[in-house]
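Section 5: illustrative case.
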């Protein structure tokens, strides 16, 4: 289990050790567990290991002052991702068949992709989050969600279906009363089986880049492999050209700064520990000015308007699919890197846009980087200064994200 979900949690903070989320004398120290853990125990799950996280949880690399840096088990020059990086590393090493992470900017999907695993970020309200520790608790414009990582799509299905059988909506007020929908699952499988029939095939959008950063060569190759495989199976792939992801991500990053970093800096102050460079990029070394109610309300409006714009773009693809429906899902990079090197994970735009939209996103492992094949084109022209920095990085695995509205 990801460390933020179980008893004796520290969330990567030295000052949280031996406390309940930084507080002493509550009677909950070393005893309190999240609603999801309770339900897993009721299902017969054996919880035997809590895994590392970055302090704050707000990083795509896992590093803290308790255990140091969590490396990629397949290449110890690379990151295991974050914030569920310990979970990704453990499962990749086959130390566990299944695990759970949380995700407010990519923290399930990044470790899944970097470690060659399957992972799913459900939409908000699908899985029980009650009792899971978090940073910036109460920031509700873009909320964190919980979901599984596994070695197979079947593992994800087992985890989701089992938890929903416990009727989590009876114990978490934010979970929607939606049981596992067997009939809808059957309809999708029936469509896939009849893909040779033009009326039965699926149609996918393909996002080649987000207009800010170009995916690295192994990532581009993975996207092309998926597109070719789908077309070979009789499905259709069209270009995905949505509203500006840069504009959407600017809205999301505003929400992370609502409290000016007060929450995380108070946690660091409990012990006086150093703040990792990865976290300093987002929160600095001291609190900043907080947003007022008017700014928060205006951001909520911008988010809603952007979601509506994106939804109508999705609906408009009905004219292009040839199925009588909008695209069934779109395929995109999870990150521009196969896996990031320490302190070089600087661009999160491919994962964070999904959190703003609150779409379900599933990570599917495709291939690994090949230094003889995945070469940067000689005529490569970066889209931005950020793109130039990314082009100078390197990695190992590569997965793609399949996103459903």
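Designed sequence:
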């Amino acid at each position: 289990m990801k460390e933020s979900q179980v008893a004796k949690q520290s969330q990567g903070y030295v000052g949280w050790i031996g406390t309940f989320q930084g507080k002493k004398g509550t009677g909950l120290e070393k005893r309190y567990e999240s609603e999801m853990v309770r339900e897993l125990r009721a299902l017969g799950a054996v919880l035997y290991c809590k895994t590392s996280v970055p302090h704050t949880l707000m990083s795509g690399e896992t590093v803290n002052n308790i255990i140091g840096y969590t490396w990629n088990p397949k290449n110890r020059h690379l990151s295991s991702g974050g914030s569920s990086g310990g979970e990704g590393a453990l499962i990749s090493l086959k130390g566990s068949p299944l695990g759970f992470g949380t995700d407010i900017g990519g923290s399930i999907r990044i470790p899944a992709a970097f470690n060659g695993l399957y992972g799913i970020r459900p939409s908000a309200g699908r899985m029980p989050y009650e009792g899971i520790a978090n940073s910036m608790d109460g920031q509700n414009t873009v909320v964190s969600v919980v979901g599984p990582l596994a070695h197979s799509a079947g593992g994800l299905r087992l985890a989701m279906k089992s938890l929903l059988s416990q009727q989590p909506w009876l114990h978490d007020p934010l979970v929607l009363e939606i049981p596992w929908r067997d009939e809808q699952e059957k309809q999708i499988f029936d469509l896939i089986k009849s893909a040779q029939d033009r009326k039965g095939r699926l149609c996918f959008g393909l996002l080649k880049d987000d207009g800010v950063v170009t995916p690295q060569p192994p990532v581009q190759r993975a996207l092309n492999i998926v597109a070719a495989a789908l077309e070979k199976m009789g499905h259709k792939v069209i270009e995905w050209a949505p509203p500006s992801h840069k504009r959407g991500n600017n809205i999301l990053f505003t929400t992370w700064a609502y409290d000016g970093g007060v929450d995380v800096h108070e946690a660091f102050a409990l012990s006086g520990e150093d703040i990792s460079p990865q976290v300093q990029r987002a929160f600095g070394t001291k609190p900043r000015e907080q947003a007022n109610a008017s700014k928060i309300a205006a951001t909520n409006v911008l988010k809603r308007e952007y979601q509506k714009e994106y939804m109508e773009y999705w609906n408009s693809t009905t004219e292009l699919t040839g199925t009588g429906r909008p695209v069934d899902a779109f395929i995109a990079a999870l990150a521009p890197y196969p896996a990031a090197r320490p302190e070089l994970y600087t661009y999160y735009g491919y994962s964070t846009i999904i959190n703003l939209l609150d779409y379900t996103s599933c990570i599917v492992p495709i291939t690994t980087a090949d230094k003889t094949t995945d070469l940067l084109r000689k005529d490569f022209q970066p889209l931005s200064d950020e793109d130039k920095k990314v082009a100078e990085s390197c990695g190992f695995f590569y997965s793609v994200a399949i996103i459903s509205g």
